[in-house]
Write a structure and sequence with these properties.
119 residues, seven-stranded mixed β-sheet, single chain, 11 strands, mainly beta, four-stranded antiparallel β-sheet
Length: 119
């Protein structure tokens, strides 16, 4: 497992942007596939985006496709989630997660960062 720490959340108006960061404790972040998830109040945690170990492939939930971009800088041991055209329904706690491969579950999770989008 790897220790993950999210940052960059906050309050933003609808239509605005935020960039979330996920810093990993490991020097071998390139060994992990990474994902972003979110949990809105009263709802279950849901998948947002994922990226392969080398950034060569990404996947997005339909609800964020075209607005959010996941990226990674393995040299900085950091994964990012650029969120544009934010909507009130994007309000949630955002978590980053890591796993060794797409064949296993995510087994390392951060503590989350709050994102609030006001209308």
């Amino acid at each position: 497992q790897v220790h993950l720490a999210e940052s960059g959340g906050g309050l933003v108006q609808a239509g605005g942007s935020l960039r979330l960061s996920c810093a990993a404790s490991t020097r071998t972040l390139s060994s992990y596939a990474m994902g972003w998830f979110r949990q809105a109040p009263g709802k279950e945690r849901e998948f947002v985006a994922a990226i392969r170990w080398n950034g060569g492939s990404t996947l997005y939930a339909d609800s964020v496709k075209g607005r959010f971009t996941i990226s990674r800088d393995n040299a900085k041991n950091t994964v990012y989630l650029q969120m544009n055209s934010l909507k009130p329904e994007d309000t949630a706690v955002y978590y980053c997660a890591a796993r060794r491969s797409a064949l296993v579950d995510y087994d390392s999770w951060g503590q989350g960062t709050h994102v609030t989008v006001s209308s």
